[in-house]
Design a protein that fits this description.
single chain; mainly alpha
Length: 92
């Protein structure tokens, strides 16, 4: 399902890439030498988990208010994918 969401807009299957390699809704972060997520990933694990959960929640809650609903859900999915990568590296 998530693959279909990304394919519909970009024509690229992004879900198979590490999330740091792409951005939903622009390129302003991926062009940075140090991305905001690089800084967040230096935080303690509990803070990282909370940040990525909060980011996903933000995009779900504002769905359709700022950007198109599909793009908002893609951004939320991007945060969820980043959270999954963090959790994959930690035993909780």
């Amino acid at each position: 399902m998530l693959d279909a969401i990304y394919d519909e807009v970009d024509g690229i299957e992004k879900m198979n890439q590490p999330v740091d390699n792409f951005q939903v809704g622009g390129t302003h972060y991926v062009k940075m030498v140090i991305q905001p997520w690089d800084v967040v990933d230096t935080w303690p694990i509990e803070q990282r988990i909370g940040y990525y959960r909060g980011g996903a929640l933000k995009y779900i809650m504002r769905m359709g208010e700022k950007d198109a609903s599909l793009q908002e859900i893609q951004k939320a999915a991007h945060y969820c994918q980043k959270l999954a990568e963090v959790l994959d590296g930690v035993a909780i």
